[in-house]
Design a protein that fits this description.
heterodimer; A: 171 residues; alpha+beta; Arc Repressor Mutant, subunit A; Glutaredoxin; B: 417 residues; alpha/beta; Rossmann fold; Ubiquitin-like (UB roll)
């Protein structure tokens, strides 16, 4: 059918099977997640692939991608460190935590580290208010929570990921 | 003696394993419903329990179940697991730790309205949790609790999870349906309500995770037992998500009617650094800011008493505690910025109103405002009230108006001299 479909045929069949025939476009969000799994953003050519699979227009797919914050149209760091700075987290120091993490990584909020690995983002509530400061790590097609953080713990996590990536590259 | 009804994992270790859940009365209620009860009897029992929706609106659950018409098929059931209100983190704990009780509630609700397909709509950030629930659903299929002709009856049910992708508005039930249908999450005009025209245009029941998790125990122990807990108009237990300036933030499952005083000082361990409590919000960012005087602290946290005494809805019971060090003008700049970010853009009062409130509070935080700007902020909020398509716009104004009225001095400190 198209590139995205051919690449993930079995998985896409599984996604489509979750919805009734008349609700095929329900697959558009699962397919957007699929399209950005490898690169961390949705490549432009995937939009028409998703449109073809779900039977809606490419414009519709693009507007859905733009509406939701977890879909990304542009490349960024391989991992997005998304720190909640909403009210309950801010009451537990997440704003200064964000500043310190940025300082340690030598970037401003929204920017990517020189090694291209980490983009730091301030985000809205992640339903972890009692374990602030916290962040979620979006990358490699996954979203993981890291709670009860401080700068030291987070920097250890960052260094661990750096080591893992270096080991991958050497192998 | 077991202490918990919803957070049962705190009593029963390993209850997220199907064997352990079954050994602790798991699926007794579902089996009873399927084999011994007509769907309408199940709905009647829930109606009699007077359980009210735990997502925030407090609508009677059994009555909602009874709204689905029997002349339009198929029916769908959707569990609202979009938990995104700042200050709310209860549904996540239920699903992560006591998943089968939630799923059993969803299965009983599906049987009651004779739906053969149910969805769990989770916020996209709950990516790990969705994979976890998928595993639990597979366990249930393998054990014969889900699938075709369940437990030898004629009833069949399939459950699928569906991930959102980062949009607070999708907790609003019609926006959730739009999103589940693969569209932008923008609320629908009502009527028709989802009970009549919902998912794919079919009658649809939408319940919050915590609401559904109450259901197995209600069926197993009876409506009378459930009504013996809590208050007369707010029966049962509630999970209070306690956050902000308290020593022990977390989820506390308590009978409805517990006071702020008990929640904050006995369960929450009091205020950090033993500071003085200044204000409370009971429904996350979607709250009035209430002065935490003795009268407020003695208020029983139940749907009716919160409205009667402090004129603020209980909502999702996500209690954010503010101490004397918190600048309430800063707080408003945070809540307003949240709603500006999350406004879906469909209706003008909300899209424009949240934009202007955000702009005004940003200038205040930069000490670039005049005293008239405080009145302007309040006036923008008042002009939005009653004019927005869904509750989001209304919610965005609640903290603004009450904070300006009750904590004006905090705003005045930001006015340029």
């Amino acid at each position: 059918m198209n590139k995205l479909y051919n690449k993930y045929e079995k998985e896409i069949q599984g996604i489509l099977a979750r919805y009734p025939a008349e609700g095929k476009r329900s697959a558009v969000m699962p397919l957007l997640f699929l399209a950005q799994r490898e690169t961390g953003y949705v490549p432009t050519e995937a939009l028409s692939d998703i449109a073809e699979i779900t039977g809606i227009s490419e414009t519709d797919v693009a507007s859905i991608m733009g509406f939701y914050t977890l879909f990304h149209a542009e490349p960024a760091g391989r991992y997005r460190i998304q720190i909640c700075t909403d009210l309950p987290c801010a009451l537990r120091g997440s704003e200064s935590y964000l500043e310190q993490i940025c300082e340690k990584l030598g970037v401003r909020e929204g920017e990517t580290t020189a090694d291209g690995l980490f983009t730091i983002e301030a985000v809205k509530c992640l339903a972890a208010c009692h374990r602030a400061p916290m962040f979620q790590l979006q990358g490699d097609g996954e979203i993981k929570y890291y709670e009860d953080q401080n700068v030291e713990i987070t920097m250890q996590i960052v260094e661990e990921i750096r080591r893992k990536v270096t080991a991958e590259q050497e192998a | 003696m077991e202490k918990y009804i919803l957070l049962r994992h705190r009593d029963v270790p390993g209850i997220d394993d199907l064997k352990v859940y079954k050994a602790n009365d798991g699926f007794v209620a579902f089996e009873k419903a399927l084999k011994d009860m007509q769907p309408a009897d199940v709905t009647l029992e829930v109606k009699n329990s007077r359980l009210r929706g735990r997502g925030g609106a407090g609508f009677p659950t059994g009555i909602k179940w009874g709204f689905l018409p029997n002349n339009s098929w198929p029916h769908y059931v959707v569990a609202n697991a979009d938990e995104s209100e700042p200050g709310t983190f209860k549904d996540r704990e239920i699903m992560e730790r006591n998943p089968f009780q939630f799923l059993e509630g969803l299965m009983i609700a599906s049987y009651a309205v004779q739906a053969n397909q149910a969805y769990v709509y989770l916020r996209g950030e709950f990516w790990q949790l969705a994979a976890f629930l998928d595993e639990k659903i597979k366990d249930l299929e393998a054990a014969g609790f889900l699938g075709e002709k369940i437990l030898g009856t004629d009833y069949s049910l399939k459950i699928n999870t569906h991930l959102g992708a980062g949009a607070y508005i999708c907790g609003e039930e019609t926006a959730l349906l739009e999103s589940l249908e693969g569209k932008m999450g923008q609320p629908r005009l009502r009527p028709p309500f989802p009970a009549a025209v919902g998912l794919y245009g079919k009658p649809t029941l939408i319940n919050n995770v915590e609401t559904l998790t109450n259901v197995p125990m209600i069926l197993q122990k009876g409506a009378d037992w459930y009504r013996s807990l809590g208050t007369e108009q707010s029966p049962g237990v509630k999970i209070f998500s306690l956050s902000g300036c308290v020593k022990k933030p977390g989820n506390y499952e308590l009978p409805l009617g517990v006071t702020y005083q008990e929640l904050i000082f006995e369960h929450g361990g009091g205020i950090v650094n033993d500071n003085k409590v200044k204000a409370v919000m009971s429904a996350g960012a979607s709250s009035d800011v209430v002065v935490a005087d003795d009268f407020c602290l003695q208020t029983p946290l139940a749907y009716e008493t919160c409205m009667e005494r402090i004129k603020a809805p209980l909502g999702s019971a996500s209690v954010i505690v503010l101490d004397e060090t918190v600048d309430i003008a800063w707080l408003v700049s945070k809540t307003v910025n949240f709603f500006k970010h999350e406004s879906c853009g469909k209706c003008t009062p909300c899209r424009e109103g949240t934009f202007w409130m955000d702009s005004l509070t940003k200038h205040m935080m930069a000490n670039e405002s005049s005293s008239e700007d405080i009145d302007l902020l309040r006036s923008v909020a008042l002009q939005m009230q009653g004019k927005c398509l869904c509750a989001l716009g209304e919610f965005s104004t609640m903290a603004v108006v009450t904070a300006v009225d009750r904590f004006r001095a905090d705003f005045e400190t930001h006015v340029r001299s």
